[in-house]
Design goal:
The chain has helices at about 10-20, 25-35, 100-105, 155-160, 165-180, 205-210, 215, 260-270, 310-325, 440-455, 475-490, 520-530, 535-550, 560-575, 595-600; strands at about 40-50, 55-60, 110-115, 120-125, 130-135, 140-145, 185-190, 195, 220-225, 230-235, 250-255, 255-260, 285-290, 295, 305, 395-400, 415-420, 425-430, 435-440, 465-475, 495-500, 505-510, 590. It is an alpha+beta fold and about 600 residues long. It has two domains: about 10-195, Heat Shock Protein 90; about 215-455 and about 565-595, Ribosomal Protein S5, domain 2, CATH 3.30.230. The radius of gyration is 29 Å and the shape is globular.
């Protein structure tokens, strides 16, 4: 007698629910996405006890046919795909036919719905089983109420987080959906307290205003770019407003909020050297592309997707962000409320001065050559230096402030009149629109960083012998891989000489290799070559440039005369990004004339 048997439908649904319905936020996501797929222009969400006790979603979409209502709660029942070819042209948010069946199997569900051409009806389910269905008076659209979530799966209920954590997850989910669909009006309430309200006018800036507040919304820069495969719209918050994690980078692909490490990393690389260490930007990127290039059927929650031309999209995002921010005057303005070391967790964003200057180095160098011709980028193509895409690209930026696209480099900074030096560390300047304070160490770091990076971008074939060879031991697996990738390593200037067993010697290195952690550099290059079958030299040139710039720049507590201060400002104005040092700290801070007048009570 055989021992393999088919699982009962209810049990199969409950198992599937473990993949689709991870927490209350999963239920909210699926129900709201179904409402959008149904053509809703207005969606209302009511919650009790962070969704555990009650989740109610109402919409004004086209509604259910009465004969489809029970069928909609069966596994793999959907109106959105007909055959396997539709899987390659998915334009809806839902399509797998698992959501309603999974939700109903672990909760009590009430469905009210009405189409324009039919009478309304109400249907109730418990544990996935229809218990009642009757005609009822209701508005056109659908209302689904989910109560007693996980009532029959106590283990899942036990491992839910606190109500505050679950509510935060729901809020994040709804924020991302609202950003993905600014044309839909959302209202969200928890225990009768309003959490979110958008106007549904299609303006994503208005949605960002509703989510992040006025101070963040006032710092938005919008840019668009196109290639043969992609249309990108980037809504970037200037780097004077930051957050402590990456969760505020929202990626929207064909109207679907997604998670993708490579795309998120491309956004961060676009902000490169404009953000302090450990701080991250707020950004919303909308990408439109042919559905044939996307596989959204990777994970039951549909948050992860697979792209067939991911590298090209990463490059487009990186370049668009970098070029857009490069055109802005990114000088933070100080208000009376700004205080040092304020953690930017609330909507009232403050300027963060908490990143420390690297430890002082005794060596001080002032006489240095500065490139006098304007440069659009360093000579060496890299992650941080945009190179032209194969396809023609158009980048257009919008901002409430003046951009610097057509400005000569030396005019990217306002006309600054040097007044003097404060604490032998800061240069005080006057301008038509207020007072500026410049960090002399950060300013020269930027100048030297761009100089060194340009030089290292075209390094000569120069090597230096090590006084004592560097001895490295690898695992057997690594040693076998090193034999395969040795030509790649040699192109990066690294020759590993076998020294018996799994031990190798390094006798010489390129002069540009960072000296502070030579063994770490070599091991990183080897690991990169084994993992990627290529070596990203630009990353290490970048680190070397930052280190050299920091060590060879003037420090705090270093007196400067007027001529030296003017020369520093003049050289700073010729750099590509005169607003932050390579570590992302601000170089200049502005007090507007208005703020100064407020301080002296000239205006109220």
């Amino acid at each position: 007698m055989g021992i393999i048997r088919e699982l009962p439908e209810q049990l199969a649904n409950r198992i599937a629910a473990g993949e689709v319905v991870e927490r209350p936020a999963s239920v909210v996501k699926e129900l709201v996405e179904n409402a959008i797929d149904a053509g809703a222009t207005k969606v209302e969400v009511d919650l009790k006890e962070a969704g555990i006790q009650l989740i109610k979603v109402r919409d004004n979409g086209h509604g259910f046919y009465a004969e489809d209502a029970a069928r909609a709660f069966l596994r793999h029942a959907t109106s959105k795909i007909r055959d396997e070819h539709d899987l390659f042209r998915i334009r809806t948010l839902g399509f797998r036919g698992e959501a309603l069946a999974s939700i109903a199997s672990v909760s009590h569900v009430t469905l009210k719905s009405k189409r324009v051409d039919e009478e309304g009806f109400e249907m109730t389910l418990q544990g996935g089983v229809v218990t009642e269905k009757n005609p009822t008076a209701t508005n056109v659209g659908t209302e689904i109420t989910v109560s007693q979530l996980f009532f029959n799966t106590p283990a899942r209920l036990k491992y839910l987080k606190t109500s505050a954590t679950e509510l935060a997850s729901i809020t994040d989910t709804l924020n991302r959906i609202a950003l993905s669909h600014p044309e839909v009006r959302f209202t969200v309430f928890h225990e009768e307290k309003e959490l979110l309200r958008t106007n549904g006018n299609g303006d994503i800036k208005q949605v960002m205003l509703a989510i992040y507040g006025r101070q963040v919304a006032s710092q938005i820069v919008t840019a668009s770019s196109k290639t043969n495969d992609y249309s990108l719209s980037a809504h970037l918050v200037r780097p004077e407003v930051t957050r402590s994690n990456k969760q505020y980078v929202t990626l929207i692909l064909n109207g679907r909020s997604i998670k993708n490490f490579a795309l998120t990393q491309s956004v961060l690389e676009g902000y490169h050297t404009l953000l302090p260490i450990g701080r991250f930007p707020i950004a919303v990127l909308e990408v439109k592309m042919d559905p044939m290039l996307i596989d959204v059927n990777v994970h039951p929650t549909k948050r992860e997707v697979r792209l067939s031309k991911e590298k090209e999209l990463c490059q487009l995002i990186r370049e668009t962000v970098q070029l857009t921010l490069r055109e802005q005057r990114l000088i933070p303005s100080v208000t009376q409320e700004a205080k040092p070391r304020v953690e930017q967790r609330s909507e009232q964003a403050k300027i963060d001065f908490s990143v420390e200057t690297p430890a002082p180095v005794k060596e001080t160098e002032w006489n240095y050559p500065i490139p006098r011709e304007p440069r659009e980028s360093v000579s060496s193509p890299s992650k941080w230096s945009p190179t032209p895409l194969v396809h023609e690209r158009v980048v257009e930026a919008e901002s409430e402030e003046e951009t610097t696209e057509d400005m000569p480099k030396k005019e990217r900074l306002p006309a600054l009149d040097v007044i003097g030096q404060l604490h032998a560390s800061y240069i005080i300047c006057g301008a038509e629109d207020g007072m500026y304070i410049l960090d002399q160490h950060a300013a020269q770091e930027r100048i030297k960083y761009e100089l060194f990076y340009e030089r290292l971008g075209n390094p000569e074939k120069e090597y230096q012998l090590l006084l004592l060879p560097l001895t490295l031991e690898f695992t057997q697996e690594e040693a076998l891989a090193i034999e395969e990738v040795s030509p790649i390593l040699e192109e990066a200037g690294l020759q590993l000489e076998p020294f018996g067993g799994n031990t190798y010697l390094v006798r010489e290195i390129p002069t540009w290799y960072p000296q502070h952690d030579l063994e770490g550099t070599v091991r990183d290059l080897v690991e990169m070559a084994i993992r990627d079958r290529s070596v990203d030299i630009a990353k290490y040139r970048e680190e070397a440039s930052i280190l050299m710039a920091c060590k060879r720049s003037i420090k705090a507590n270093h007196p400067l005369n007027m001529e030296m201060m003017r020369q520093l400002i003049d050289d700073l104005g010729r750099t590509t990004s005169p607003f932050t040092c390579p570590h992302g700290r601000p170089i200049l801070v502005k007090w507007s004339t208005y703020e100064l007048e407020k301080l002296f009570k000239r205006v109220m």
